[in-house]
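the two lines:
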Amino acid sequence: MTDASPHTGPLSSSASPTSSLPPDLWVVIAAYNEATRIGHVLDDLIQAVDHVVVVDDGSADGTPAEVLTRPVWLVEHPVNLGQGAALQTGIRFALARGASHIVTFDADGQHQVSDIPVLINALARHGADYALGSRFLGHAQGIPWSRKLVLRLGVLFTRIFSGVALTDTHNGLRALTRRGAEQVHLSFNRMEHASEIIDQVARSGLRFVEVPVSIRYTADTLVKGQRTSAAIKLGLRLLIEKVTR
Amino acid sequence: MNAFQTIFVPLCGVMALLVLARMVRGRLAFVSGAAWFLLWIAAAALIAAPTSATTVAGWLGIGRGADLVLYLAILGGLAASLFFYGRYRSLEVLLTEALRREALRTARQGERSIAPEAPAPAAEPPTSRR
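prediction for all of em together
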C-alpha cells in the first residue's frame, strides 16, 4: 500500500504541521562519527519534536560531546556494534520512556525533518503501525546511478525472499507506532537490519504503508554510504540466516 | 601397514577413546559424543583399509573411494560452517544485549545522568527578602 499524498516540501514556521505531532513521539538516531553533521540535524529536530535520543555507536570523533550540547538524550555503546544494534537500543530506550510513536532518523543530514509529520499522518490516515519512507516515491537528490542500482537490487531481493513488495527497502526514515515498535527485535547489528526490519514488519501481521520522502545526498554522505561489495555480502548473510535460523 | 597408517590409525583410536572418556565424565553430550566417536572410528577404519572406501562408494553408486571421501569432507565442512555460524550469531546477540543494557543504564541528557553514581545538581538555596 502506498500513500498517494504528494510530498509537500519544507514546512513554514507560521503554520507548522509539526505542532500536530503526538506529544510522546520520540526520534531515534543512530550515530557513528558524525560530530561534524549531527549538530545541524539535532538543531532542526529539536525545533519540531520534544523527545530525541541519539545512540552513539562507539564514535571516536567527539560525537557524544556534540550531542550533549543539545537538550536530547544520549545513549552510548562502548564499542561500535552497528547501526542495527544502535537503532534497537534507541527503540528500547524510547519505549521505556512511554513513546507512543517512534521515528528512526539518520544522523548525517540525509533526511528532512519536514517528512516526519508526513510519516505520522500516514500512520493515522491508513490505520497503519509502520510508515516506511521511500525515496523512489519521493525525491532522491544527488543519488548516483550505481547507488540506485544497488538499492533496486535490494528491492528485488526483498520481494523474492521476504515476499514484501516495497519500492525502497533500505531507507532509514520510518515511523512506528508503539505497537509496531514492540514487534521489532533486531538481531542483525549491521546494515542487514534494514532487511530484517522489513521481514519483521511483514511477519507481524500489522499494517504498513510506504510514504514518499526526500533524501539529500552529498559527497561526504556518499562516501560513508554502503559499497556495492558490502551490499553483496549483506545479501549473502541474509540468505545464510534464512537457511540456518 | 605403511608409515601413515602406523601413525594415524592409533592416533584416531586414541581420539576415539578420549571422546569416550569425556562422555563418561559428563563433559560431552551423548549425541555429539557418539557422533564424534563414530567419526574417529570411521577415520581409523578408512586409513587402515583404504579399499573399503571404494567398496562403500560402489554401494552408493559413486565411482571412486576418493570421490566419496571428498564429497563427505565437503558436506562435513559445510555442516561445520553452518554450525559455527549459528554459534557466532548467538554469541553476537548475547554480547550486544549485554553492552546494550549497560549503555541504557548510563544514558545521559545534557549534563544530567540517570546512572546512580552521578551526583545530582545542587539545588539553589531559597532567597528571602525582608
